[in-house]
Design a protein that fits this description.
It contains 2 helices and 3 strands; from the N terminus they run αββαβ. The protein is α+β, with helices and mostly antiparallel strands and 82 residues long. Strands 1-2-3 form a 3-stranded antiparallel sheet, with no helix packed on it. It is elongated.
């Protein structure tokens, strides 16, 4: 392999490795947190269930991160029917 070809192959391998790492990081960064709670202590049919989904909102622009850095989420309650 010529030195020039090895040089560009090294650049390509580095970019590919960074892309794979960033894909894994971003996958978990934007994944919401899901919490399931059984208020009656059982997950049997006819019992109540509470589901909470939350995720941190962090704006891309650093100037706004002190103002807009919040945790967003939602909570739902229901009855297990099956």
């Amino acid at each position: 392999m010529t030195p020039v070809r090895a040089y560009f192959q090294n650049i390509f391998d580095t970019c590919r490795t960074i892309a794979v790492g960033m894909r894994i990081t971003l996958k978990y960064c934007f994944q919401p947190t899901v919490t399931v709670n059984y208020p009656n202590g059982s997950n049997a049919a006819g019992k109540r269930v509470t589901v909470t989904v939350s995720y941190p909102y962090d704006p891309i622009v650093p100037y706004f991160s002190t103002i807009l850095n919040k945790t967003m989420g939602s909570t739902s309650e229901g009855i297990i029917t099956f």
